[in-house]
Model the fold of this input.
Amino acid sequence: MLEDPTGLERTWADAPGALGWLRSVDHKAIGRRYLATASVMFLFAGALAATMRLQLSRPENPFIGPDLYDQIFATHGTTMMFLFAVPVMQGFGIYFVPLMVGARAIAFPRLVAFSYWMYLGGCIFLYLSLFLNTGPDVGWFSYPPLSEQLFSPTKRPDVWAQMITWTEVASLAVAVSIITTAFKMRAPGMALNRVPIFVWAQVVTSFMVIFAMPAVMMASTALILDRLVSTHFFDVDRGGDALLFQHLFWFFGHPEVYIIFIPGTGIVSTIVSTFSRRAMVGYLPVVLSLVSTAFIGFGLWVHHMFATGVPQLGASFFTAASIMIAIPTGAQFFCWIATMWSGRVELKSPMLWLLGFFWVFLIGGLTGVMLASVPLNVQLHDTFFVVAHFHYVLIGGAVFPLVAAIYYWYPKLVGRMMSERLAAWAFGLFFVGFNVTFFPMHLLGLHGMPRRVYTYLPQTGWGPLNLLASSGALLMAAGVLTLMADAVRARRVGALAGDDPWNAGTLEWATASPPPNSNFIEPPTVGSLDPLWEDPPDQPVVVGLRSDARDVLVTHVLDTEPDHRTVFPDPSIWPLATAIATSAMFAGSIFTSWAVVYGSIPMFIAMVGWFWPKSPDEGGTQPWPIEHRTLPLPNEAPQGAMP
Amino acid sequence: MTAPAAAAAMVGRPTRGDGGRAAIDVSGLAPGGFGHRGLMWWGTLGIVFIEGTAFALTIAAYFYLRTRNAQWPPDAVAPPALFWGTLNVAIQLASGIPNHLAKKAAEHVDLRRVRLWLVVQLVFGVAFNAVRAVEFLNLNVLWNTDAYGSVVWLLLSLHTTHILTDFLDTAVLAALMFFGPIEEKRFVDVEENAVYWYFVVAAWVPIYGVIYWAPRLI
Ligand code: HEM
Done:
């Protein structure tokens, strides 16, 4: 019955060296890569934002011209939405969902590795293009007709459209893996009402990804087809319609806001509960709010198009839906307040950033309710009021919880603590800087300053508020630098964290920091929502998984009865090879549509390499010849006696 | 027990099995399982959702463009020739039979039958991909003629990508069953492949309806 941790750890380890690194299928390594790459993307896009603020800091600034400004704001928006906000949340999901459900790995580990390489391919492609003066320049949603060949005869919109394909392939792959992990790999005892809220949030988000992302892929594919092979989807002269793009895009685009925001709320619930030192108040309402937010989110796509003159009744319906979404969000707010109210709040660094979140997101929500009313929306359409609103929502809803998550989970990832004092400094700088940057933008919008202009005249009187906004951006940058400096410092000299530095209740804290290769030397079982708080000390562990192969336990979806074991694949170079082949095809397709044909050959080869079994007993099942079936069919009782 | 005390107790729990510790032993469980027991089934389901959404959105785009045009199909364009599309419905639905038999054979780990029915499936696959090529030639419109042509080509190409990749997947699987290292787990793969095949074939029925009948009936 005794496990031998050395053998087990060797089984789950990556090979040393560069090749081992490239072949890794460990969800912790891939999650870390996602987080690191997304952080770099945040820095790049942040640098672009700083450049914009520098340009707008005074009227008629000669610093950058309209052509470059267009590329900068479009690349900033594209990066933040597609290459930062979604992947960073998925990165946390990849790292923590398996740990939080007590699993040894993420489902489909090679697919997850592939997704990372695709994501990286999209990042490199976008910034290489920008560097070659071919960055997207028609906004982060690239509306036709402006993005059509006639008005944009460059390669810039093609870059945008293909970048979408790259990143969406990646996030769809991650979504499927996270759902499967959360459904089928939970520790015995983790019935649906004991699933951590963060995991629920990741599952709901993944479902939204699955139903929303295909829409933007269809939109960008149709756009690139119009541009490259002369189809007429959006060409009014030949029976097409540019509004079709908008419908497809916002069928994705509004859920996208929630795809970014729902994992954020999952983080908030997790941290609020830990630092109030009590179980979440209203677990069920919070989970139901997450689910209903997802449903309403899909009903909302049209509200981005009020200015296009949708039929009157439709407009009223969508106004109602826009306002209705406030209900589940409000319910979550009350649950958080109730949890803090009835608990003993400890104001540690993650909590600090959550307070920032509460404030900022509330303002974003209020201006959102304003924009949900059709008359105001038409008036403020395309002004800086809108820019202010969505930065309050996005930075409030995603970046503040995200930084809270960094402080919260850094000790688990690295094994050391970040500094509370520097955290307070970083927070102060960022919070003040954020409000100084974005609050004046509301006023600028009300005074009529349009968005996406590279400069303005002195007579408009917008100079002083713009200067104020730009100086705020400096403070924000200082805050981000403080955070980064601390992260680098703490890696080497931070206090050792131990398994559970915050005395938190969920399973990721039941193992070492950083976790061993196999996540849990002895996989846990659970008997409550916060097992580290409420389970008895002799809560059973799982034994009997092989330690000479990557054996994992698969459980029943609803009641998590142990169902069977399955052997996961060893590290493999094929995910990387497949991603390279796919990337080459995507990049080539911009220049000639034949690339799709030629490019699919190496892709096919790589995929065969991927799926072809490496060793006869890889699966842990019997090699041929087999006398009779031993694996159970769906309707049979699980094999093997359980105690 | 108070929360911190419980927390302390949990953190202090031994990280190595100490023999005396309560445990559930899973070593007797089967090393895999068919159908929705297995992870692959859920992964396939996810892909079906994704691709089903893509099909549904393209069909929605078709009808959206339909409302933007007074004439559908526009002037001087005949609807696609019925024969080949209908033939393909027949072939694809018929391919459900070897598909079903391959699935059943896999569930009985009957290698001989699995090989047989996979090969029959491949024959069907060759047939419906070939007919598909003829379908493209008989659409009576090109992708760059007008928006109608664009969306019809998109719908048909989207489905073609699926029958083509499903054919290739099945070919690789069949090669594996003939030449590869075979173990029991591979039969689960055959079963999953059959599930996906059902989806691809089932998707053709509404798409066929849209491409071939919508311009005639609506
Ligand atoms: C870090 C501090 C940030 C600053 C200083 C900043 C600044 C700006 C500015 C000035 C614009 C407007 C440009 C214009 O319309 O002329 C803009 C646009 C935008 N920002 Fe940010 N931003 C920041 C962070 C973010 C984040 C975190 C996100 C999303 C998660 C984001 C998403 C966007 C989007 C989508 C646009 C619209 C781009 C377009 O018009 O196509 N930004 N940002």
Summary: The helical segments of chain B are 3-11, 39-67, 82-107, 111-137, 147-179, 185-217.
